[in-house]
Amino acid sequence: MLEHHSANVRDHGLVSAWSSLSHPARERHDAWAQVLSDFFLPWTVTSRPKADVVATVRECRLDDCRYIYCTSDSISGQRAAHDIGRTRGDFFNLLYVLSGSEVLKFRGREVLLPAHHFVLWDSERHMDFAVTQPLAKLTLMVPERQMKALLPNAQDYVGIPVDGSRGFGRLFTDHLRALQREAWQMSGQDLTRLRSPTLELLARAFGSVPCRRRPSVREETFRRIREYALARLAESDLTPRTIARETGVSIRYLHLLFADIGTTAAAWVRAHRIERSKLDLADPNRAARSITQIAFQWGFNDAGHFGKVFRKATGLSPRQYRQRFLPKE
């Protein structure tokens, strides 16, 4: 059971916090081993129990993504087959070291991650980790389907350390550090709105550095199509046929590219339109705009159809979703 322990944590259900100091010294190691799995997916701790472990965790939800700040004394562990088997959902996880260092092992290949570097790891792969000195780190957990929609070749970046002190890497890590300072006091709607810009910066950061192999022509074509479609989500005539024509590919090839990430072109466009609509529905600055206006703004041309696809995607009607974030009149 996670324990809220800080008066500085906003209590709106999207933020959780835990500290080993809330347990008797003799119980802290076992409590930390359990909480490690609660926050960071299932792990098996392999280090010898140590008395009086000091560790803290804070987590906030950016819609379907999780942002976690963690400090810890030395500890080591692994994601073995039984840990992977009891994980609910598949995730790509970005780990960014603020201070200290962490050693990771991917299929026998050891990676030292020093301060100001980040790396991507995959919840479906075996991995070992070792923290040998006090560590502070940030983790961003992204559902696999969402990550592959943004970065189709995400798997090629797994286990490759990236310097977060320059270029797009610096822009991304500056954003992560700003979140660490501000997120805990932010409202639920503001946290939800942070999801899209955070993921876009993540994709840009990885897209700007070499991976294990050069992107194929197929992957480059999909990246170009994705950027074209994202820039035109508000256009109601953005259809698979329009996208294919304007990006110079056949409609058959377009469908094959989206099948590679387990979806269709139409479903992908619809999902991103829903995401933009969610941001507007949760924005108090757009409270005066009607739900129909927001739907039409993001390319939907039928309010009834928008309501049906929105409910299917979120489990709520647009009005119910808006009421979750905006104060009632």
CATH architecture of the largest domain: Sandwich
Outline the low-pLDDT stretches: 1-12
Query: What is the CATH first-level class name of the largest domain?
Result: Mainly Beta
Terminus-to-terminus distance: 36 Å
Share of residues in helices? 40-55%
Largest sheet: 7 strands, antiparallel
Q: List how many beta strands DSSP finds.
A: 12
The outline comes out as: globular
Fourth-tier CATH superfamily name of the largest domain: Jelly Rolls
Radius of gyration: 21 Å
Average pLDDT metric: 87
Strand order of the largest sheet: 1-3-4-11-6-9-12
Examine the coordinates and then state which fold CATH places here, giving the name of the CATH topology of the largest domain: Jelly Rolls
Q: How many helical elements?
A: 12
Structural class: alpha+beta
Task: Provide the succession of SSEs.
Answer: EHEEEEHEEEEEEHEHHHHHHHHH
Question: Approximately what portion of the residues adopt beta-strand conformation?
Answer: 15-25%
